[in-house]
Amino acid sequence: MPERPREVPSPWSRAVPLGLAAVLLWSTAATAFKLALRSASPCMVVLISSAFSLAFLAVWNAVARTRPTRADFLSALPRGFLNPFVYYLVLLEAYDRLPAQVAMVVNYMWPVMLVLMHSVIKWRRPGAVDLSAMAVSFGGVAVLALLQPRGTGSMDAVGLALALASTVIWAGYWLLNLGSGSGGSSDSAGLMAAFAWGTLFLLLFALASGRFETPRAGTVLACLWIGLFEMGLTYIVWSRALAVARDPAEVGNLIYITPFLSLGFIAVVLGEPLRPATLAGLVLVLAGILIGRRFSRGEAARS
């Protein structure tokens, strides 16, 4: 009798659970930020979290018998300056000033900024659909800023500006990765090198600005969570999910679950009542991102 062919396990079955695990962990980030900021400054939260992430990445690379080369460290310097140094400082300052749900939704529109910045760098005029996508997402931010519950006062303009600035910085970080041909978060050795630079910059900044302080136990625990599940381990899990997926889109689309899960954690753990304006703003931000993605795929198909 002919030998029965062995069934090959579907990569999908491995990719999706990994992607969902990363999405679930990333969904806790906004809550962890707020918990850490209750007892420490944004600078110290980012410094301690980055140090934990660096320690984890060092252990990970030691177990995998890989380590950053001198070239890795040189190429990682500008990336480490942007992330974690500048990006997380700006983002945590925004979280310190805004409700967690508002900061999270505004920060989530970085893909729209990526499209806009890529057009500027390539000297390409954004098309009508590009502009429509940006207008829809910025409309979501406007809803968040203008539709305030009565008696809560006006939205913190500086915090809102910082949240928007974080989207520009994060988009710039990914453009830098693309331009240098570096995978960034998909390369654990390169990621470790970037966090080594970023942690050094953060330490020097904390000492020079007089913001270095002895952290409390609760702060350390929240920063440990951030360092592992926002910065370090989750990047590796997500990268692995993309690597084993048959089509990156089947994993990439899972990321749209993140803000809704995040709102759940914010409501349950932080006790922030979810505002109708938050849900309306989130829907508009996501709609703008989806419009931009659909347009990009259509253009690629026509090309």
Notes on the protein architecture:
By secondary structure, the protein is mainly alpha-helical. It is 77% helix and 0% strand. It contains 13 helices and no strands. Helix 2 (29-37) packs parallel to helix 12 (258-270), helix 5 packs parallel to helix 13 (276-302) and helix 7 (128-146) runs antiparallel to helix 13 (276-302). The longest helix has 28 residues, at 70-97.
Mean pLDDT: 82
Strand content: under 5%
The helix count comes to 13
Give start-end ranges of low-pLDDT stretches: 1-9, 182-186, 297-303
How much is the radius of gyration in Å? 20 Å
Overall structural class, as computed from helix and strand content, comes to: mainly alpha
**Principal-axes shape call:** globular
SSE order in H/E notation?
A: HHHHHHHHHHHHH
Report the helical percentage. Answer: over 70%
**What composes the largest sheet?**
none
The counted number of beta strands is 0
Distance N to C terminus: 50 Å
Counted up, domains total: 1
Keyphrases for this structure?
mainly alpha; about 300 residues; about 75% helix; 13 helices; disordered N terminus
Produce a short descriptive summary:
By secondary structure, the protein is mainly alpha-helical.
Question: Can you lay out the helices and strands and say which pair or pack?
Answer:
Blueprint: H1 11-26, H2 29-37, H3 42-63, H4 70-97, H5 100-107, H6 110-121, H7 128-146, H8 157-180, H9 188-208, H10 217-244, H11 248-252, H12 258-270, H13 276-302
Helix pairs in contact: 1-10, 2-5, 2-10, 2-12, 3-4, 3-9, 3-10, 4-5, 4-8, 4-9, 5-8, 5-12, 5-13, 6-7, 6-8, 7-13
